[in-house]
Specification:
The protein has two domains: 49 residues; 44 residues, no CATH class. It contains two helices and three strands. A hairpin with a 2-residue loop joins strand 2 and strand 3. The longest helix has 34 residues. It is rod-shaped. The relative contact order is 0.08.
Amino acid sequence: MSYEPPAPPANLPTEIVNTLNESDPEQLRDVASYVETLAEHKEREARLEEDADDADVEERPDDLPDDVPAKATITIKEINDNRYYYWWREGDKVKSDYKGPVNPDE
């Protein structure tokens, strides 16, 4: 172990470095434990979100119109015995947009 204090990571904000430098060893160990647990939690949440996004994409039909956003919810409505695509969502706004018949021959 060196007698020199360790150098903080270059990307760590100065406010955090200063707070850590002012902390006693017990607080630093508590912070280290918390930070490790928090990092694991955030990694798990990111994996779950990624898995959910992948599941949504896999369930989408292959023959959708090209201009339907990737994260839009697709519904098929039946009107007068004909089936039609609609999508719902544009960014953070929810809206409905007619995209044509499910079977182009209809």
